[in-house]
């Protein structure tokens, strides 16, 4: 049992409370209060100059793409995918994906991310990596189909997704949650969408899908499907009938937003990736006004190029101020909630994302004593606009410390870096052969 | 004399060179090469897993405004200035400005900034703080006038600016350079602009001015001055006849860009501040295409809210990709140059901003071994998109280490934080009285 003492806390009401005492027992927060609880503790953590806050929940990620960090820069989305990412991905194997995922988890822990909503291939390797290092993951094997006649139930891809669900869903005390994912409208057929929606309903799995990331995608979808937008089309085919995370939603129209709201779809906005690939700026204030939950995703390390959630939070808080010409939009508190409790809810983790008795101990300790965090007029403002991801000095997932002061207790970082560099070189060698 | 050994270097050509040896003697770089120089050294710095690169030059700052970090958030530029910043500033005194400047310098050093182009009041306190901690500063006392008849030569403000120039220009082996600044077109009269331009020409001082930050500013200027934009108007009155830094330039028109180019004005773009106050996105690619030098400014800690240049570099590199719908715009190398050598040139520091023999030793050591910097497909890409400001582990100004691993050899940070907190509380007390 660990005691955080005399620490500033972002409490369950989202308020800043100073000089608090928080205890963690097993995977859960046991107590939060302003007086020291009785008893002895395995460890007492001195909270002077520190903030204890909920860890981050990354609502859209492709963890193994750390392998492609900085590979193929300054290209359009189409060129980036076609000339760089797809050929590189063709060379991936289970080992490369395992090590690249561990690298992503190390970076995630370093930047305070406890859990990621992840969509990729070789998903069993991703699951194993997450289990091995203690990360939480909402994971899915992305499904695609380009053959109108293809029967999903018989495809290897679906069987992999099904096996993944049966082998990993709920393991690690619920840390691993398996979802069903459709890669996107433009990489699928109506038959696949319907069949996947049917399966998700059968087993009660969450759905993860890329939606309306670019204007071109929306226009092409309308051309293919009687003028319907991706949101309308996917909704008509039943994809949103189980709890869904829709990544991007940059180019959603008024009717789309009503559908997302009616279907309780969470939008995972990826502000940095959407800038880098010149996709656009998601209209977060309008989505929220219409009742749509908005969480924050880093997207992959190939299009961000990192998993520094606090950096993405700053982009999230700033971009709509300028785009909608209104600096009152997106408050610091809204930004922090999007990256914490709303992200946790999007992942179906209803006991995660707040510092409250009985809730899961997914926690960050942040050093708030640096010159860049002084003075304090309002700690929320400093947290969103002034803090650096590296101010995070400790990350805990389900009560287990996974990062502290440059150390990764659950990951052999030197080995991981070496394995990733080898895998990268092997793939580049094959591509250049 | 210090030797950096076996270190990766961003060399004088802007290329990445591995396993280099760099020596610093006094304030200058003595040698750069791939073999170990002979001799013994006071200190040998092991460069394994590290990058040695030029320090940053912050092209637009108001250092003492660290006091107002996070004070007055989510407001329009006008409300922010009128309801928050101006009343707070009315309460400032020389002591508050001195300590707040030291806080800004600590943060600047922590984030690799060697030198800032700074404009504010109580400028002699700012200069003293910079001298005391070893920072470089291009400093000016901002001039304003709202009286068409007022004769600049007789104003206290001008006499302060003149005294500042005479007392501090060139001191500290040239680290302090005093400039003349006009706050902006909208806070001045034609007479002030002409007289200040005349004085700057007389003494050969550089000029610093806010230009075309908001659309409303440009429209109001046209109304006041026969349809002329701020750039046209200030140019007509001779303000750009000495070397000038024009901050913001978000709303410049085609003819403005030609003038800026003809007059060799450097634009200091402030991407984060311009988002936060909903001012707009400076068209960096177009300015560069027309031959205008573009450097990067943080603006103040009240509108950023920090001095984390590497964070601002990421915004700089990303914003125009999305705004101009072209992800090929603003390469990582261009972004780094804007924050280093172009910033140094804007400050008239012609022997700063590159790692080359005989140049000033304004240097950063960056830890490039973290998980977020792995793998390396292209180090520039990692530096701009993946690195964190906190990866900077050492900052050197004119050969003197001013930051290393959380320590500030030239600043008593605990005292500074305490003095700033006291000054803040005193001012808030007066405002609430």
CATH class of the largest domain in chain A: Alpha Beta
Which segments of chain A are poorly predicted (pLDDT under 50) over 5 or more consecutive residues? none
Strand-pairing-aware structural class of chain A: alpha/beta
- What percentage of amino acids of chain A are in beta strands? 15-25%
CA-atom Rg of chain A in angstroms: 21 Å
Within CATH, the superfamily of the largest domain in chain A carries the name Metal-dependent hydrolases
* Cα end-to-end separation of chain A: 55 Å
Number of helices of chain A: 15
* Largest sheet geometry of chain A: 9 strands, parallel
User: Helical content of chain A, roughly?
Assistant: 25-40%
Number of domains of chain A: 2
Give the assembly state of these chains. homodimer
Which fold name is given in CATH as the topology of the largest domain in chain A? TIM Barrel
Give the overall shape of chain A, derived from the CA principal axes.
globular
CATH architecture of the largest domain in chain A: Alpha-Beta Barrel
| Average pLDDT number of chain A | 97
